[in-house]
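Form 7-S
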Amino acid sequence: MASLQPSLVTIPFPDQSDDLIHVQLSARAVTLAVDEIVTIHATLTNKGSVTALFNMEILGLKADWLIVPDLNLKLDPGQQHGVPITLKPPQLSSSRAGVHHFALKVTSPTYPHRYCQQRATLTIQPYYNFVIEALTPRNPSLSWGKSAADYTLSITNTGNISSRLRLTGSDQEANCHFEFQLPQETVTLAEQADILLVPQETVDVSICVTPTVKPWLGVGQQLHNFTITAFLQESNTSRSILGQLSQKPFIGPGAAALFISVLILFSILVFRPFLDRSSDMAFQTAVATSAQQNRVQNEVLLATPPVETTPDHFIEPPTAARSGYEPLFQQVAHQYNFDWHLLEAIAYHESKMNHRAVGAANDLGLMQVIPSTWNEWAPRLNVSDPFDPHSNILVGAAYLAHVRDFCHIRGYREPQWMLIAYNWGPAQLDIFLENGGTWGDIPLAQRQYALTILDLTARRSVSQIPSPEFYSFDMEN
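Output:
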């Protein structure tokens, strides 16, 4: 664990006693956490023979760490007065962990050139926190002439103590190699890197991502989704950020189509004489076979009396199967007070239960969570892999609960509004409602989305859609 760092004020203030001015603190050493409050009391005594005005001053601490009353007092001879001094360092990086020396100094214009001073210490306990910014660029494209993508990741220590972070890179298919270049370092570090940050320090880390396999032939670019994770050992917390890159195949769709066309034309020119002779023989054989089959069928129809037929009885497949992701939907739905069929219907409609699905807008996983939503909610839920079924359902449900509360606060408690916000975005819905929009004014695509989800939920709840239609997948994929 990193050691406590003292603040910039490190020189102790000396005690100073006086025959006419006397001050006494109720505590000389205080320890507390950021945003915690503690109150000590200062007792001031006028030991002189005349009524005097006293001025109290706190040295060594920032003004926003203190809550104090009026420090100007008028005391008669021999009179005492207690003053409460409340200490509350805010949860900011500037409230550095460690020992801070301070003092209470009392002066009086009635007794010029005299003062009384009593020193004390405030120890602030450490707290750990950091933020990471999105990777830039967002989605670079690689060709056969460019084999690696370079990214920049910004990390800021927002805690009040120096912290060591470990950076790692990973992708689900293990098709990428990661190298980290730290500021002012001449060597690159493979797969992981450690970096020490002082409070309020921001560093830009260079990350090189190299796919280990190059595509030869394809109709589109090959996408690689990966995750960069920063782990803070002292507090056992982590933050993850999603990244993506695409690779162009060596032979693209245009070149592949031209190659196939040339191959077909060549095959026609070479094999046409043989095909013509084979076609004639096949036609003659087919005609003879067809005539023979017709004669046999006619004989059977004449010899067999008609039989009345009835349709086979339809047996509905079981609907209470506990296979697939059904237990995950039930667990997460209970956590956020949802009908689990609703989460199941969203996943079915969004990804057809494909936990590795990547949509046209880079929507990810079962619930098709967009990257910005994942980056906001995944750290709160302490998950890092968008293609892990439980993690993806958890983030989707947490975000759905958020938009549910968003709609309820505005008086829209019907479930279709929550689904509109989930699909359209709460900010877009808020603008729409502020401008007087009604249900009939919502774009058709969003309305159909909400009604389709509700219809799937209702039909699954009454077992009109059997489980196998929802869970026809290979759990190992």
